[in-house]
């Protein structure tokens, strides 16, 4: 089973690795259009580019500028703001952007109506298997250590790609309710700034089911190691050499053929939040006036 899972992971990573270093350009555009409180030029450009994303690889910079009702210089500034050297690199990244097909196995992509019930059955069984694996490897002392670091940390941050970033926001919102601030962002540039502001008394959670975050962001990983802060990785791929720098690794299953890992990642996060909340409630009780 482990060899099969490793082979599938290698194939999936090879598919990712054939794209550019910035394969999540659509996420960047969505982030700007969703999070911009001021409807400025960047917001307008990002929203228009999202609406016409799959047309961009065949468009010139002049056509893109006309579409957005801005100048070519504005488009050039915008793509540099995203981290690209110029419009050509941006356009190539759009062409190689990871699509929905990366989420699913060939079995799903080729499924007919009669295949659906068996596919959904296996999907559900694999989710349950992941959760059972995560539960069987649960170490209460490890959870105690991590929660102790959370209590003492001057700063806590979460990092991840796509869905994992959304889970990071969930961690942020829950811990804020327990008077603990967490820094997180869906945007890679903002993630870099978060890491640069950490100290050796900080704690960082990397949510990376298949180690994709580590491969896509080697510069950030180097900064994290230089900072000397505590690192906790939540993953289904704990034996990956890229993870050896972590102080603790929480295993949330072994399978992610058709996004099952997302459910077990959230399960492990909920266990960790529950564990932390127990200490929080105990402290509230101890500090309550008699």
TrEMBL record:
Signal peptide coordinates: none
A Pfam family the protein falls into: HTH_6
GO BP, sorted A to Z: carbohydrate derivative metabolic process
Superkingdom to which the source organism belongs: Bacteria
Chain ranges of the HTH rpiR-type domain: 25-101
InterPro entries for this protein: Homeodomain-like_sf (IPR009057), HTH_RpiR (IPR000281), RpiR-like (IPR047640), RpiR-like_SIS (IPR035472), SIS_dom_sf (IPR046348), WH-like_DNA-bd_sf (IPR036388)
MF-aspect GO terms: carbohydrate derivative binding; DNA binding; DNA-binding transcription factor activity
Entry-linked PANTHER family: GLUCOKINASE (PTHR30514), HTH-TYPE TRANSCRIPTIONAL REGULATOR HEXR-RELATED (PTHR30514:SF1)
Protein name: HTH rpiR-type domain-containing protein
Protein source organism: Dubosiella newyorkensis
